[in-house]
Amino acid sequence: QVQPVESGGDLVQSGASLKLSCVVSGSFISTLTMAWYRQAPGKQRELVAEINSAGRSLYYDDSVKGRFTISRNNTRNTVYLQMDALKLEDTAVYYCRGGPLGWGQGTQVTVSS
User: For 56-78, what is the mean pLDDT?
Assistant: First the structure.
């Protein structure tokens, strides 16, 4: 099963920005709706944002609307999550996934005060 590779997580202060990347090997990603999820300590994994194969965003969780932007570059087999105005509650492991893809290792985002 193909697994995405997420990167870009870091330890940042509240109010900072980060851009996460998700790379998937193989060209079929261009046909998939892709999504970013996150899982905070002690909580269930939740859907953060979703984007269709053409690059149109389909969904943002209310908690990230206006702060996060999902995008993709199909020629690079990559999906991005631009995160601005980060808050303490954004601290989580972030994962991307779509279609038949498996779960990757995720990338840790930690927001400090």
Answer: 97
